[in-house]
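Hi L.,

As promised, Phage tail assembly protein:
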Amino acid sequence: MKITLTKPVIFDGNEIKEIDLDLDGLTGEDLAQAEREYLAMGGQMTSLTLSISYCQGLAARAANLPIEVTRSMSARDSNAIAMEVQLFLHGMEDQVPGKSA
């Protein structure tokens, strides 16, 4: 799924205007690694799927980008991407009105 950013991000001298989230390509190991990284940053063991930081980590993995990219996005873009991850993890990505898969 390609997501066009409302505000491009500059990372390592490259302008990133869209990211391609391959959420279906994530594995259980990706989930576990994102959890370890989230907890190492001081995250709390609550509902991980509702944590923006955790979802940013998964989005970075799904897009094959460093987490610094998802963290440097505008709040609107970062939140939109975190919501896509949340919907995917809860099996609700196809249930958003007006959205086609």
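The longest strand covers residues 2-11.

Thanks again for sending the construct details.

K.
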